[in-house]
Amino acid sequence: MTxxxxxxxxxxxxxxxxxxxxxxxxxxxxxxxxxxxELADSLTARRAEGTGVTMTVTGAEVGPAADNLAxxxxxAVLEAIRVRFAVALTLDKRIPAGAGLGGGSADAxxxxxxxNRLAGDAVPRAELFNLAARLGSDVAYCLSEAPLAxxxxxxxxxxxxxxxxxxxxxxxxPPMPVSTAEAYGWIDEARIGSERRGALVLEPDALRSWxxxxxxxxxxFESVVFPRRPGVRGxxxxxxxxxxxxxxxxxxxxxxxxxxxxxxxxxxxxMALGRKHGTVIATRTLS
Length: 287
Description:
The protein is an alpha+beta fold. It folds into 2 domains: 4-160, Ribosomal Protein S5, domain 2 (2-Layer Sandwich), CATH 3.30.230.10; 168-284, GHMP kinase, C-terminal domain (Alpha-Beta Plaits, 2-Layer Sandwich). Helix content is 32%, strand content 30%. It is built from 9 helices and 11 strands. Strands 1, 2, 3, 4, 5, 6 and 8 form a 7-stranded mixed sheet that branches. Strands 9-10-7-11 form a 4-stranded antiparallel sheet, with helices on both faces. Strand 9 and strand 10 form a beta hairpin. Helix 2 packs antiparallel against helix 3 (125-135) and helix 7 crosses helix 8. It starts with a strand and ends with a strand. The mean pLDDT is 91.
């Protein structure tokens, strides 16, 4: 049986994101279109003697190992299979943490797949998705490996879509963090006394080109984050001035992304922005 496996864990961006009403369980429903990008972490899982999970992280500080989604995902698989062996995880972080790029979710999905493979694929794929849904909102999408998908609820209900053509992307990660819990609180505060969000109606051909997506792209968090984080608003405005096909914040922020027609357009934008607004990363969508 294979004892060591390594897997890429690509980031995602939200091409549109609508926050629906807060439900009785405290969670907000979402409607979102997600696309995977080439920027990725790398996770290695090694089968070892003993029991339990250990974790080493390089590239960034992500807090206590026991709080890490990849660590918790590995534990979930070991608990599900009831096979007694230890797993040593090594995570190489390249995706900025806490930026809305789904790095933790991507790492968790990679851990689910790797540890299950070390166990001889003992957990059926449907059960892996159940584990993913319990771990976090974006984990099921990352586990699906779909380049493009529409998701609802907490991300556990999905329709995978035909991928859009590969396109160059520029990420801008401002140095000011945005707490996801706070961002949801700001949404609730802004909507006191307002009606519930209405349905989103999509035509069958509405998501077949970048131009189509650009016409409907949006992120409900922008309206509450930008007034409270002027640096994020300033970075967004600077990025939007570089002439992209579309420009948005991803997740609850604070990372911003722009999609371009050509690599040259993206690279010119990268030069123009410099590092005035935070870390700038050139990447591409996956197809």
